[in-house]
Amino acid sequence: MRLLVIEDDPDLNRQLAAALTDAGYVVDRAFDGEEGHYLGETEPYDAVILDIGLPKMDGISVLEAWRRAGRSMPVLILTARDRWSDKVQGFDAGADDYVAKPFQLEEVLARMRALLRRSTGHAKSEFSCGPVRLDTRNGRVSVDGVAVKLTSHEYRLLSYLMHHTGRVVSRTELVEHLYDQDFDRDSNTIEVFVGRIRKKLGVDVIQTVRGLGYLLTPPNDAR
Ligand code: CA
Fold it and tell me: What pLDDT does 158 receive?
């Protein structure tokens, strides 16, 4: 899952990015409204954290411009104070949730998990596919109840597939959602990671759909 953080306070921006990275997301950062607006319009983010008070272009204008352009990714706004008018304006502009400053990072993380699972049609924070379970609250993966240790790259890939069960996910889509903007993108690395995940899980839940990508399927459903 690839996220964008738009916050002009450098310390807060860094803290948010660090907490989200630790939680297993890939994070791009912007420090003003113009830069953030551009990134959100051109890159495929799974969700965005958007400050309202920003230099060059305020958060409400950024959000309105994205929604006008048909960008539908979930957006969590940060309101400077617990001002009700900020929240109303934000929701009317197309925000999906908000956190008022000052906030606890844990709350932002929990709200982000909820936004991501709702936007992909899931009601619970624990995902499963056959004997494989993935808990987004603590980043744990298990097979038949036995914990499996994945690297952060492997976890991100499996988590993305878990959020998008029931459809084929292309290599290009995975590359776009698993790496930040500075990463040297090579879709062959995806194949290597899928191979490692299959080996670690020991059950074949990731099907390769030739020429299209990958499909997560419980083993007994395999065709
Ligand atoms: Ca600000």
Answer: 96
Predicted structure pTM score? 0.87
CATH number of 126-221: 1.10.10.10
Q: What is the pLDDT of residues 24-34, one digit of tens each?
A: 999 999 999 99
Residue 203, CA distances (Å) to 72, 134, 154, 212 in order: 35, 14, 15, 21
For the domain bounded by 2-119, which CATH number is listed?
A: 3.40.50.2300
C-alpha 137 to ligand 1 mean position (Å): 28
What span, in angstroms and rounded, lies between the C-alpha atoms of 26 and 180? 6
* CA 45/CA 151 separation, integer angstroms: 22
Q: Quote the ligand 1 centre to 11 CA distance (angstroms).
A: 11
Q: How far does residue 79's CA lie from ligand 1's centre (Å)?
A: 8
Q: In the chain, where are the structural domains located?
A: 2-119, 126-221
Q: For residues 127 and 218, what is the distance between their CA atoms, to the nearest angstrom?
A: 12
pLDDT of residue 222: 46
Ligand 1 mean position, distance from CA 32 (Å): 9
**Contact between residue 27 and residue 21 where contact means Cβ atoms under 8 Å apart:** yes
**Buried-exposed string 62-99: b where 16+ CB fall within 10 A, e elsewhere:** bbebbeeeebebbbbbbbeeeeeebbebbeebbbbbbb
Residue 187's pLDDT band (cuts 50, 70, 90):
low
pLDDT of residue 80: 78
